[in-house]
Structure formats: structure tokens, C-alpha cells
Write a structure and sequence with these properties.
237 residues, alpha+beta, seven-stranded mixed beta sheet, 8 helices, globular
């Protein structure tokens, strides 16, 4: 039978990481803001916590639909023995208007490694391997400096546009590159909040949007096609 392109992409990602010795974790979609924000170093007043971006259940903004799969990093750090290698796929929610690349509900895969002597080079090496396995040998990536509260240093990773091969076209908004994921070294404060000594252990984390991954993997130009469940579209897989 036909399978949704996103789940095909998810299975491929899971397989790649399981092959590298990662454990797959599942977590709640209704989450505590404490785990979604505070424990990830995004304190009160951080723009990502805004009511205009986040679906809260209570006036005190304590309970929410998770806006990222990152709380699973915190849950893992609190409960698992070190070293840790996990990925956590799942649905996340943000108040985004629907367009070709945005939706209020989407799927993310969070990944995290914590061990002794882990560096940014490990992060890049792992992510480049994953991208080549997903999109084929020689797929070009680039890493740009970025800022996320729970990682330091942080980066975004782009892959060369599949439609134009980097020349620039409507799919990549003329840029030749498509942003695929955000990543970085886990902030020492985030490790400390889980009782992990940042002088002994280091780690990295990334969050990858599944829809975007599937769009690139199957050369789909408009995100809305993924959610509208049009049989004519889904039958292509």
C-alpha cells in the first residue's frame, strides 16, 4: 500500500540513527513549559515563549503543546545513564500561518549525544553522514552560525537545493540552499540543570523538520501537499 512520504522519510532517518547506535524515544505532545523552555535555557521573557507563537492550555503558561521535540533531551538527561545517544521524533505545534513552507502542526526529530570529549566536529561528521545516506553521496551541506538558547555554539545546516543544484530557483527562494536543521553544542547550563558536569561531559543536539526533509527527499515543492492528503499526490509514493 501507499505510505505517506513523511513516514517513509522518518523510517529512513530512524534506520540511519539506529545503525549508529542511537535509541529512539517517544514523548508527550502536551508538555510542561518548564521542560520546553526553562530547562532548555529559554527563560521568562524569551521571544519563543510568546503567546503569539505558542499554544498554551492555562493562563499561567505552564502547560502547552510542545513547540519542539527538545523537551525529550531534558527527559533523557534526567532519566538515562551516560553516555546518551537518542533521537526523539514527534509532532510539534507553533502558531504559524499555513504557506508553502509553514504549518501550525509539523513533525520534528530531535537528536542528542552526550559523552566525554564530544566536539562540534562529531556533530558535523554525523550530520553529513546522515544527509548523504538520505539524499545520496556527495550531497553538499553548509553550516552557518546561529543562535539557540540551549546550544552554544549553535549552527544551522543547509543542503544544496535539489531543484536547481545551487543556482537559485523558486523552491529555494533564489538562494540555492535549503535550511534543513538547527544544531549545536549543548549549553553547559543545560547540562548542569540535569546534574551533568560540563567539565567532564559535552554533547551536541539537533532538531530536524520532517516535512522539510521529505520535501527535499521526494522533491516536493509545497508543504501543503503533505498535509492535504490528496490521494492523487499520495499515490505517487
Amino acid at each position: 500500500g501507499h505510505r505517506h512520504p513523511m513516514y517513509i522519510a522518518l523510517d529512513e532517518i530512524k534506520e540511519i540513527f539506529i545503525g549508529m547506535g542511537f535509541t529512539v524515544l517517544d514523548g508527550p505532545e502536551v508538555e510542561l513549559a518548564k521542560l520546553n523552555f526553562d530547562r532548555l535555557n529559554a527563560e521568562e521573557g524569551h521571544p519563543s515563549r510568546d503567546w503569539s507563537d505558542t499554544f498554551y492550555f492555562d493562563e499561567d503558561s505552564r502547560v502547552m503543546l510542545r513547540s519542539q521535540t527538545s523537551p525529550m533531551q531534558v527527559r533523557a538527561m534526567d532519566t538515562m545513564e551516560l553516555p546518551i545517544r537518542i533521537i526523539a521524533p514527534g509532532r510539534v505545534y507553533r502558531k504559524d500561518e499555513v504557506d508553502a513552507t509553514h504549518s501550525p502542526m509539523f513533525h520534528q526529530v530531535e537528536g542528542m549525544v552526550i559523552d566525554k570529549g564530544v566536539t562540534m566536529a562529531d556533530l558535523k561528521g554525523t550530520l553529513n553522514t546522515v544527509v548523504e545516506k538520505l539524499y545520496g553521496k556527495g550531497t553538499k551541506t553548509r553550516f552557518r552560525p546561529h543562535h539557540f538558547p540551549f546550544t552554544e555554539p549553535s549552527c544551522e545546516m543547509d543542503v544544496q537545493c535539489h531543484k536547481c543544484g545551487g543556482v537559485g530557483c523558486p523552491t529555494c527562494k533564489g538562494e540555492g540552499w535549503i535550511e534543513l536543521l538547527g544544531a549545536g553544542m549543548i549549553h553547559p547550563r543545560v547540562l548542569e540543570m540535569s546534574g551533568i558536569d560540563p567539565n567532564v561531559y559535552s554533547g551536541w543536539a539537533f532538531g530536524i523538520g520532517l516535512e522539510r526533509t521529505a520535501m527535499r527527499r521526494f522533491k516536493i515543492a509545497d508543504l501543503r501537499l503533505i498535509f492535504e492528503n490528496d490521494v492523487r499526490f499520495l499515490e505517487q509514493f
